[in-house]
Design a protein that fits this description.
mainly alpha, 2 domains, 15 helices
């Protein structure tokens, strides 16, 4: 909104200062500050409203310290995050940019899906919420929208990078094809030629490799949207964990978007150049500001929970954002905390079923999953499987901070993979 207004004032009337809105860095700072202020100032009123309407969290007694004290804490606080993302994005982003449009659709789509789930839990008193198959339908639907838009939109293109060698036969940078191309490519870490064509998988045995490549790309998109949004939902189990981890991931994604959308930096790093992707930095600024602002109230002890309204949304945003900047294969590193949380549930469930069939009684690897609950419990069962010495119970706030630190390390690693080959 303001971007288009000041862009017009700059071109038509040469208004002093209006040209500042042409700079992505300037608009990103405004977006971050606005999101932070909206989340902290408006958040207080939203929490009071949720409390008056008795929209509180239903807590199952898992025997964890301080758990039952959280009963009745306002939930659906993800509304704060969504508003704090949408407002600055609408104000400061280029709303004709296809990448911004897709991120706005993602935010609203999964916000609505998560909101319906929370509504059923809170108002219908159904603790199971929205049935799993309907959540999957929503996530798959979003994956199809993103995937097919990337196939058919003329605005989503890349310029493929080619290494340039200096006189010493060392890589000096990259040069790009003169024309933008439509290609199902992504960045693959730790490989010298770091572009992966999805169609290359099928070239040896099919003449329709390009078509199959795009089909695989859409399937990967659906899988990532579903997996990351559900992983974020599992991570949202203790105060501040999901929001803080997401803010760290948002910083890394913003950096990846900026270097991918800037021909100079992408050339220096020898990665594909994605015209228009730099605009995503404005959205990233809003996302980071919104999650940090939400932490003002969600940090231990939490005054509000984000609920599925927030957890599904921030997970979906991360997944779609990575796909748009062609860095989805970095997600196992970048979202390592989310990945471990999900794997702990999968491993625990599989091990329990296998041992139940074998011994008649199911056994557990972890005392409790997702894995953050394992560390809240003294003498976790993992000690009985791998070693004899049980671990000590760790306070909730310390678990959160330690997971944040791990997330920061993984985010840095994900970024430097662009040069580690």
């Amino acid at each position: 909104m303001f971007y288009h207004l000041f862009h017009y004032l700059d071109r038509a009337f040469d208004v002093p200062g209006a040209g500042m809105f042409n700079y992505i860095s300037f608009r990103t700072m405004l977006s971050f500050i606005t999101a932070l202020l909206v989340a902290t100032l408006l958040g207080r009123h939203i929490i009071d409203f949720l409390r008056r309407k008795q929209i509180g969290e239903t807590i199952r007694d898992l025997g964890l310290d301080g758990q039952m004290q959280k009963k009745g804490t306002p939930t659906m606080g993800g509304i704060i995050i969504i508003i704090a993302i949408l407002a600055p994005t609408l104000f400061f982003a280029n709303l004709t940019n296809i990448y911004i449009i897709l991120m706005l659709i993602t935010t609203l789509w999964l916000g609505l899906t998560g909101g319906i789930d929370d509504y059923i839990k809170v108002f219908k008193k159904n603790k199971d919420g929205l049935k799993g198959r309907y959540k999957i339908v929503g996530q798959v639907g979003l994956g199809l929208i993103v995937g097919f838009t990337m196939i058919y939109s003329p605005d989503i293109v890349i310029r493929e990078n080619q290494e340039v060698m200096n006189v010493d036969q060392r890589v000096a940078g990259a040069e790009y094809t003169r024309e933008n191309i439509k290609s199902a490519q992504t960045t693959i870490p730790f490989v010298k030629n770091n572009n992966l064509h999805y169609s290359a998988i099928f070239k040896s045995w099919s003449k329709n490799a390009t078509v199959y490549g795009w089909i695989l790309f859409v399937l990967v998109t659906i899988f990532i949207v579903t997996a990351v949004s559900n992983s974020s939902n599992l991570t949202d189990g203790i105060d501040g964990l999901a929001a803080g981890s997401s803010a760290v991931i948002g910083v890394a994604l913003g950096i990846l978007a900026y270097v991918s959308g800037n021909v100079n930096y992408s050339g220096f790093l020898n990665i594909m150049y994605i015209p228009g992707a730099g605009e995503l930095l404005v959205f990233a600024g809003a996302f980071i500001g919104a999650t940090i602002g939400f932490l003002w109230y969600n940090a231990y002890p939490a005054q509000v929970f984000m609920g599925d309204t927030g957890s599904l949304t921030i997970g979906g945003i991360i997944g779609v954002f990575a796909i748009l900047v062609r860095k989805e294969l970095l997600l196992p590193i970048l979202c390592g905390v989310f990945l471990v949380e999900s794997l702990s549930v999968i491993i625990q469930t599989a091990y329990f079923k296998i041992t139940k069939r074998k011994y008649g009684t199911g056994r557990r690897i972890f005392k409790m999953t997702p894995v953050h609950h394992h560390f809240q419990t003294k003498g976790g069962a993992v000690a009985n499987v791998f070693w004899d010495k049980p671990h000590e119970q760790i306070p909730e706030s310390k678990i959160t901070v330690r997971f944040w630190i791990i997330g920061i390390i993984l985010a840095v690693l994900a970024i430097i993979t662009l040069k580690i080959r």
